[in-house]
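Chapter summary example: a protein plus iron/sulfur cluster.
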Amino acid sequence: MKNFILSENQNFFFGDCNNCEAKCCNGKNGTLYSQIILEEFEKIYENFPILFIFGELNFIKPVVLLTNGKDFCPYLDNFKCTIYDKRPTVCRTYPLSPNIDDKIYIDVFCPEVGKNNIKIISKNSIHKNFDNEIFYDYQNKYINTHLNFENLKQNDFELLKSINNIDFYIYKGTSNSKYLKMHKDSIKNLNKFNI
Ligand code: SF4
Ligand code: SF4
């Protein structure tokens, strides 16, 4: 199961995804959803459901649903991603991940972390194959996303489904912001997920 640790001031090496049967795309390994920022909505809403969860202090958070919690992502075929150029940011940067503390974490559950092919992250740089604009100024992007939804009322959300004890919600209110429109459009993708 996932085990993200702080990468700060350390070198981490990475092997080759060809040695792995797409562990990071498998619901059985804990891949279920990923929190997203506003900048990601447009890139993913045509292929994935964008849903909401309520976090600490009932803060509403938009998330992309990646699996149904037990199967592989529906876009995986023969252990290859069939939408490689349109895959969500979390898939582009994995096993690296940005965080609200503006530091970068690495998932040591990935079996190729620690194998010596490339230096995936060091004190001053991220390998170009994993580098992404999301790593830069992430804290502000996260806060902007929070501010965009903070005035919505909890009553305007309806429970869609609880998966692995996570409650996923759909917005049922009247606001028609561009992000909520993309959320509503993205719901059609639920039928790909066998839930
Ligand atoms: S990133 Fe890690 S878990 Fe995902 S396919 Fe590559 S080696 Fe496997
Ligand atoms: S979009 Fe591609 S890389 Fe991401 S979980 Fe699905 S199959 Fe894996």
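Key point: Residues 25, 66, 73, 75-76, 81, 83, 87, 91 surround iron/sulfur cluster (ligand 2) (CB under 6 Å).
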